[in-house]
Amino acid sequence: MGLFILRRTGVMILTALCLTFIVFFLTNLYPNLEKLAKTQGNFRMSDEAVASWLGNNGYLQPLPVKYGQWLGVAPGWTHETDEGITGRCLRGTATAEEAAAAPRFCGILQGDWGYSTVFRDEVSGIISTRLGLTGKLMFWVLVLMVPSALIVGVLAGMREGSPLDRSLSTFSIITTATPEYVSGVIFIAVFASSAVGLKWFKGTATSAMESANFENFFLPVLTIALYGMGYIARMTRASMTEVMTAQYIRTARLKGVTFRNIVMKHALRNALIAPFTVIMLQFPWLLNGVVIVETLFNYKGFGWTLVQAAGNNDIELLLAVSVVSVIVVLATQLISDIGYVYLNPRIRIS
Questions:
Q1: What whole-number distance in Å separates Cα of residue 243 and Cα of residue 236?
Q2: Contact in structure between 141 and 221 (CB atoms under 8 Å)
Q3: What is the predicted pLDDT for the residue at 344?
Q4: Above pLDDT 90, what percent of the chain?
Q5: 326/239 same-domain check
Q6: pLDDT the model gives residue 289
Q7: Of 75, 110, 145, which closes a domain?
Q8: Can you give the residue range of the structural domain that contains 178?
Q9: What pLDDT was estimated at residue 22?
Q10: Cβ atoms within 10 Å of 52's Cβ, excluding its own
Q11: Distances in whole angstroms, Cα of residue 56 to Cα of each of 43, 87, 93, 99, 261
């Protein structure tokens, strides 16, 4: 197991480097850099002025050099001006003595995530704050989604073809086929709009960032949970149906074991092996799939930050969001593989 984890960790690091380099390349294309220069300077800047601004801020270096500086494995750039010295590892203009005392390496590996040109703040602080807000949203989504989906799937798979199975399967298909931007708009129109009259909840979740309660937080949680619930329930139902037709289940029935004990002691654990992988894959989906819901309900979390960074060409913030997303996806896949081995002892790691 230790060798397996070590090998997978190495593959994860290599994959993360490849993915982040692709994102870095796309965000550092010249049209994006030109837009950034005009946003920070003047939209009427000439081509010469744009090139001068980009050169003074280190954006015209070769791509591998810039990527190494962003990672923190290459020395940061410096540039001398009439006012003083500027550089990647410097905040503002510095004197020669201050520049000499500044660290040479300042990238992701050193904990320096850059500076947001939109929020005018350190990227690391923005990411930690917004990720915490989305983490709170994800927690309550999982609390509602996972138990509900497992119950629906198990009940549907216990008696295949029964009216209960058909009803729950239809419900699962409807929830999966309805996008969040459709169900969210419907929930807001029915339960939070004054036009209908059922003002049970608040239409926005902005106040939930500081003080979450049932009134301002339930609708976004329900919107996300319903969409993911159907997929997990369908996988659980298919797995449960397959287990209930296995030979050892038939043997238990012939021995006179009660149906409840057959389901709880024999069928349930084996039926949860496939849904476990699906549940683990919900984490990266929740992290990046909340973009629509957070924007719709004005909940300023990680997904909302991604929209703001992409829409305003905030390169440093967009790169940081990409790094966090890649790490979460790869980490959850590793945890899923390890958990799958423990749930199913018949699997051996070669």
A1: 10
A2: yes
A3: 64
A4: 4
A5: yes
A6: 67
A7: 110
A8: 129-343
A9: 92
A10: 15
A11: 18, 9, 12, 16, 72
32 Cα distance to chain centroid: 24
pLDDT digits (tens, 9 = 90+) for 75-124: 888 878 777 788 788 777 777 777 778 788 888 888 888 888 888 888 88
> Hey, what are 95's tokens?
């004197």
**Cα dihedral angle (340, 341, 345, 346), rounded to 10 degrees?**
90
Q: Report the candidate in 15, 32, 101 with the shortest Cα–Cα distance to residue 66.
A: 32
Q: What is the identity of the amino acid at 321?
A: V
pTM to 2 decimal places: 0.79
Residue 187 CB-density burial (10 A; 0-12 exposed, 13-18 middle, 19+ buried) = buried
pLDDT tens digits along 151-207: 888 888 877 788 888 898 888 888 888 888 888 888 888 887 766 666 777 777 878
Please state the domain count of the chain.
Answer: 2
Helix residue ranges per DSSP H, the chain: 2-27, 30-40, 47-56, 63-71, 96-101, 123-158, 163-177, 180-187, 214-244, 247-254, 259-261, 268-271, 273-280, 282-289, 291-296, 302-311, 315-343
**Which of 76, 110, 144 delimits the end of a domain?**
110
- Give CA torsion, residues 286, 287, 292, 295, to 10 deg: 130
Q: How far apart are CA 273 and CA 347, in angstroms?
A: 11
Residue 81 backbone dihedrals phi, psi, to 5 degrees: -125, 180
Q: What's at 292, amino acid-wise?
A: I
**DSSP-based three-state secondary structure for 79:** strand
Q: How far is CA 217 from CA 120, 252, 304, 321, in A?
A: 29, 45, 16, 24
